[in-house]
Amino acid sequence: MTPAGKLTINIYDERLPRKCFDARIVSAGRVQENRMSVKRISALKKLIKDQNLDAMIVSRNAHVRYLTGYTGSNGLLVVEHNRAHFFTDSRYDTQARKQVKGAKVTILSSSLAVGMQTIPGLKKQFATVGYERDFATVNELEEFRRNLNGSLLAGARGLVERLSVVKEKSELELIEKAAEITDAAFTHILSYAKPGVREVELAAELEYFMKTNGSEKPAFETIIASGARSALPHGLASSKRIAAGDFITFDYGATYRGYVADMTRTIVVGKASARQKKIYGIVLKAQKAALAKIKHGRKASDVDLAARNIITKAGYGKNFGHGTGHGIGFYVHVPPRVAHTSHDVLASGMVITVEPGIYIPQWGGVRIEDDVVVTKSGGRILNKSPKNLLEV
Description:
This protein is α+β, with helices and mostly antiparallel strands and 392 residues long. The protein is 32% helix and 22% strand.
């Protein structure tokens, strides 16, 4: 999201409630998703028109799913002012015709970009066609140019993201379900966190539990870092074995019907040392301060600074190098940015993470993260997992 709300366009377990799996609720959810797809495509049509584009090419899988409901891996959506076109190949014929709402489905036997040649509105000379500048590959751009004779390609930024920043009630419910699965997985994994167990084994058990309890897939590659490796903010699970006295940082999330959760908890295997308790206490204090700042109309940078000032005052400012959080929704890392350099302003219905940390090389680190819904009166924390320092 850019300042002042402007878009940039450049030319070039069982522990879970069984209602999660009630067939009637799933069916009702699909009907709601179908309605949302039609509504979202209609909103994108208006946005395209407002941005003086004749059409918009949507190629990122997550965005195609967000707009149409299609869950396959090969699809291309082209949206004009008055109509939308969806292209895929024969492998997804039945699936696309069943899932895609709000767009005409066409099955192709060649490059999906060839389908753009069949769209009358794109045949006129000097039509301006937007593409997802931040996500389109070089190969995709070549395909777009090859099949848009006479049209001008415009690299657009933030169109689909603009639609998805503030969540509707049904979207919030799905994120809550993802957070619920994520919480249950944390309770489950605690009994496996023992000396001698490898980080990758913990990751496998965590992901297996989430998938068997309603998650489609991990929201991102699971981060499990123990001992000195916990000083790596994005330390993916390795073959390292857990040792007594280790910090273990778990950063992971479930995906429920396309929507993600993103939670971090740090624990100690065995008894925590005085230094571990001190560092953990500072991070927890910082996180609570940031959470207390969240509400509609607040600058995202103020939330970051609430946490950052506490960590800096404690003498560990140089050990907190990343932002305090980010938006989540149909995938992780969406607007707004919760950082001291951010120009974003929080609004009711946004869902953000709050995840300050301290990372000390060759020793270890602590991060605590929750998913939070922004409301007019404050922040509503979705995660229920304990945040006191657990010694397991």
